[in-house]
Amino acid sequence: MKREFAVIGLGRFGGSICRELSEEGMDVLAIDTDEDKVNEFKDIASHAVIADATDENALKELGIRNIDHVIVAIGDNIHASILATLILKELGTKTLTVKAQNDYHEKVLNKIGADHVVHPERDMGRRIAHNIISNNILDYIELSDDHSVVEVKAGSKMRGKSLIDLDIRAQYGCNVVAIKRNRDIIVSPRATENIKESDVLIVIGADIDISRFEKHLVVEED
Ligand code: ATP
After folding, report:
1. Is 109 in the pocket of ligand 1 (CB under 6 A)?
2. Residue 18: CB within 6 Å of ligand 1?
């Protein structure tokens, strides 16, 4: 089923959202004040129009009220991003995702009712930092300030052992929610599942518990 989206601000971030949604067959209205940007997206999005998102009438004329999900990806101009968010909220946008430029911007956006506030540079920076710190952590998604989901290489300490043998939940307070094995993904693995050295475990838990789990079971001794 096609769902309607609008992406406001066609910089690198908004532009890539617009491209992906369009490639997935979604109906996307692409909006920017910059004519060159709009031209770039003419053949990618369903509609691409020049408009200023801080102009309430312009948004109304575009029928933004009928669009389920609006993504505000205006970067540097924090004032415009906040104003556009306020207007869209007042116009009754069902779901509003907004890119924040810094922590204060994020706070304001949450206060004025943005449904999802994303902070791509900060989040990607954190993910990369985690990957750099630990060779074993392949990916990291922050769920809250103190909980995450990580992908870790199983390694030799877990080889041939089952989840029961390792007793990860009781010992470390975290859960293995899936195992990636070659091209397969075993979702909610059975407790008796034997782990292979080359497996990648997807683990959810408090950061402090994941860190203990990683130190004891994942890090290889030299
Ligand atoms: P990125 O890192 O994603 O490239 P950025 O932080 O550099 O983003 P900007 O270039 O500041 O972001 O803004 C993204 C886009 O938003 C630009 O193409 C800009 O023309 C557009 N934009 C800025 N203000 C408005 C506005 N009021 N209405 C619509 N589009 C706007």
Report:
1. no
2. no
